[in-house]
């Protein structure tokens, strides 16, 4: 089973080459970098290092991921989302792919909780992560430890989710919809380090507040659908 890698990127000229070069290629069909309005040389650097680059002018993490989905080739059976800031370890990709290849999971999240180096996850990220995971456990009955961006999912499962959120709610939407649809979900521990450059979300007070509100709103938004799915069973 081959994987397609989607890397949303905005002004990641300093890090994108490292991310692309460190991806284990034996299990990968394609690497798609979605340039989400960069004002630096992110796109050209990504091309120079062998990635397919597509442009998404609409701002937002989810919008970039949706563009990446629309740009997938026809052969890959697994889709992987990977940040372009070099905070994740691309070398950990086989850990995420293994449960899907072995038939144990449809959807795998890389959990950063135990593998993050000191200072890589800021206090506001840890607080928001704990709050969001706690809400999902309380409402949906599924225990996540992380809302981490490094994730792998069967392509047909991703397409079945009908993803819509163009902004910060993308990860939460994927997780709660996967629960609602009864997917086999698991987490694997991954390493995490300080990103290169400044975060567009956790690095600012405004970004933190907007992201937190959107994530909580997304978890609540899909809860009625989850309840209806349980009543029908």
What does this structure look like?
The chain has 233 residues and is α/β, with parallel strands linked by helices. The chain has a 7-stranded mixed beta sheet, with helices on both faces. Helix 1 links the parallel strand 1 and strand 2. Helix 5 packs parallel to helix 8. The radius of gyration is 17 Å and the shape is globular. The two termini are 32 Å apart.
Distance between the termini: 32 Å
Structural class: alpha/beta
Cα-based radius of gyration, to the nearest Å: 17 Å
Helices and strands, in order, run as EHEHEHEHEHEHHEHH
Helix content: 40-55%
Q: If helices are DSSP runs of H or I spanning 4 or more residues, what is the number of helices?
A: 9
Mean pLDDT: 93
Shape: globular
Largest sheet: 7 strands, mixed
Strand order of the largest sheet: 3-2-1-4-6-5-7
Estimate the strand proportion.
15-25%
Which segments are poorly predicted (pLDDT under 50) over 5 or more consecutive residues? none
Number of strands: 7
Question: How are the SSEs placed, and which strands pair?
Answer:
Blueprint: E1 3-9, H1 16-21, E2 28-35, H2 42-48, E3 52-55, H3 61-70, E4 78-81, H4 93-101, E5 107-111, H5 123-140, E6 151-154, H6 155-161, H7 170-180, E7 185-189, H8 205-221, H9 223-231
Parallel strand pairs: 1-2, 1-4, 2-3, 5-7
Antiparallel strand pairs: 4-6, 5-6
Helix pairs in contact: 5-8, 7-8, 7-9
């Amino acid at each position: 089973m081959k994987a397609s890698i989607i890397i949303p990127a905005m002004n990641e000229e300093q890090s994108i080459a490292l991310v692309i070069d460190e991806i284990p290629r034996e299990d990968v069909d394609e690497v798609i970098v979605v340039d989400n309005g960069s004002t630096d040389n992110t796109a050209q650097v990504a091309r120079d290092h062998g990635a397919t680059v597509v442009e998404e002018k609409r701002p937002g993490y989810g919008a970039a991921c949706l563009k990446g989905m629309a740009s997938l080739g026809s052969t890959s059976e697994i889709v992987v989302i990977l940040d372009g800031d070099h905070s994740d370890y691309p070398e950990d990709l086989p850990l995420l792919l293994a449960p899907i290849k072995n038939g144990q999971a449809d959807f795998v999240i890389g959990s950063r909780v135990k593998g993050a180096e000191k200072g890589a996850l800021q206090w506001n990220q840890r607080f928001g992560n704990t709050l969001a995971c706690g809400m999902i456990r309380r409402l949906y009955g599924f225990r996540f430890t992380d809302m981490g961006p490094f994730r792998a999912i069967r392509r047909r499962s991703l397409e079945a989710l009908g993803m819509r959120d163009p902004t910060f709610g993308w990860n939460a939407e994927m997780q709660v919809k996967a629960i609602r649809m009864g997917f086999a979900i698991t987490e694997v521990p991954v390493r995490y380090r300080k990103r290169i450059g400044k975060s567009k979300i956790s690095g600012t007070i405004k970004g933190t507040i907007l992201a937190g509100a959107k994530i909580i709103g997304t978890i609540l938004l899909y809860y009625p659908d989850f309840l209806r799915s349980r009543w029908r069973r």
